Amino acid sequence: MKVLKFGGTSVASAPIIRKVEKIVTSAARQEKVILVTSAISKCTDTLIKIGTEAGEGNSSYKAQVYSLRCIHHRIIEELLEGSACTEAIKECDATFDELERFADGICAAGAITPGEADAIQTFGELFSTRIIARKLAADGYRVLWIDSRELIRTEDGKVRFDLTDPAIRSTLEAHPDVDIFVAPGFIASDLQGRRVHLGRGGSDYSAAIYAAASRARIVEIWTDVPGIMTSDPKVIPAATTIPYLSYRAARDMAEFGAKVLYPPTVIPAQRAGIPICILNTYDPEAQGSFILDNPPHRASGLLGLTALKGEALANVAPDVEKPALKAAEGDVVLVLVGTGEEDGAEVEARMVRALARAGIKAKGTASTGYNVFAVVSAEDKRDAMLAIHRRFFESKPIRTINCFLAGYGAVAQAFIEMIATSGDTIAERTGKRIRIVGVSSSRKYILNTDGIRPEDIATVLPYGHPAEGGAFFDAIGTLSLKDAVLLDCTNSESIGARYEEFFRRGLNVVSCNRRAFAVPYARYAAMKSTAHDYGLALKYDTTVGTALPILESISGSAYSGDEITAIEAVVSCTLNNIITSYDGANTEPLGTLLKQAQDIGLTEKDPRADLGGRDALRKLLILAREAGVPLEESDVEITPMLGPEFFDCPIEEFYRLLAEYEPKFIAREAELDDLGMRQRFVASIQKDPSARLGYKAEIKMQLVGMDSPFFWISGTENIVIIRSAFSAPLVIRGAGEGARMAASGVLNNILSL
Questions:
Q1: Are residues 47 and 149 in the same domain?
Q2: In this structure, are 133 and 56 located in the same domain?
């Protein structure tokens, strides 16, 4: 046995009824069928109007009855011919005559009682089902029209299943030869025999009542939409069909505002363990939505988004879980219906963020074990629904980027913390999830292709595999992961020498290791070429200026044909911090400032590498090469900050000499103050036809006045001035040091892959 229910739009005209007949008769060839239908579309609304007008003593209800009669006559005449048509019209007219007499009685009384108002609504299903039964019989099917008023009994508005179930079963069993039973939905009678209805949408409930009583295999609810959808498609064009729901979820969707299913429908079906399927009359081959006791597992524990008026929340069935949430009249309650598998508090937070990004502040939010609620104003309803639906049901497939992290210093640890705290937000906003699959310090490494929880790395890494001899990179070579990147957060030239090997293994490379790029130009060009040949990325924007868009700006000008004529840069954070912090007699001695910077790790182990311009040299090589100038170390003229006597001695002697020279440093600062000048350690390339490469490259201390951008920088700030043939000078200035900034820069590089 199968129960099929068709809504008003599915029986609204003769052509659509023919579609219904095709569906019903196809099912009847397989098994017995109970066909339950609603009144034709808009009929019940017209009947309500007839009752209202009659109750007001207004005879205009007769015109309404006549119009409704004509609509049904037209359907009969298009569906049936000959004697079948004549008999159907007679039957239809007899029911319409009964309706008119009923309305006349109301009009004569000059008032309509609540019972009469309910009863007058029950005529529509009598019209539609009798017409369809006649059509099926005329086409040769063994059909029996059964009267739901005699079978479905109610008391105090509730179905008496103890009376209803045996009445339905005995009727079906008394007619074993019938193929198709046709029953009007929506209507019933109370224990006194008075006509009653089961509520607007009650034909769904009727179908479930018949299914439970007959122990049907399935209930099919045929309507004009493809199933229960993730939201109202009239509001959310991107709404999609939910293929499977539990009884509970389906009832929650219905109770909280989804109009596809009448909420009480679920109760008898669930009690009898009968699946419900919501299908589309206009697309019978579509899958629809299946409501089951144990639906297939979904990737997400969220099913759909509904909306109901704030005051309607209190009218939700008492046995349906709802929050203690206040909603004023005129407010709208939005409900994310779930399966209970999601963390309600987390979903609530994500909902609030989604609303905030749309400029909407929720008036209140709450979550239960299954569902999450938000109260918004009626004016914000549409925008709020669009924002929430987009966040939870329209997300693009998340692309996973597998990250091998070389180096476990400050930058790497800041990067790991970012992924731990912001990984979900990053995935939400970019559609990309960064999964750390390997980490190596100088001593130990860990690997797990399923991913390593960022918050576990600090605990697990000390117990990892020995990393000596490049074991981490050898281990990576045995793996084959899609969308994989090596993030080099080391300061090792030897690791940079392996980049070409990494490309051949299918790894993208993101690096903040400037030593890897301050190599002979042939090696630099080879690694760039190999990356290109293998279709992989080599990103190293943080090697100069940390998170500042310096390299991006230079390469953009170079690629566009805007010839770069000069680059002037203060990019040595160490030197700039010391130089701008020192003010002669007004500050601590220069040697003390330098020792403090060394102690906190701002300089190389031997700070003279910075004072000698080594760090600035590496950065200048990268800047020049990004501009298309194949600069070598030998092309750069370096004038160190201090004389040669400071470099050709042990470190202890170096600091002693600094202390000895302190009076000279103080005198020089006083002289600069009098001149209104500042010293800056500037690395530059200038177009010069006489130079080997057509550019002169030098690193030296320069005096700058207040008209120079260099005058105003302080601390670890970096500044680069890019001059080109066709554009005004571009000045890029900002923080050039900081683990978090560097981590942010490499993160952006990875997300650009």
A1: yes
A2: yes
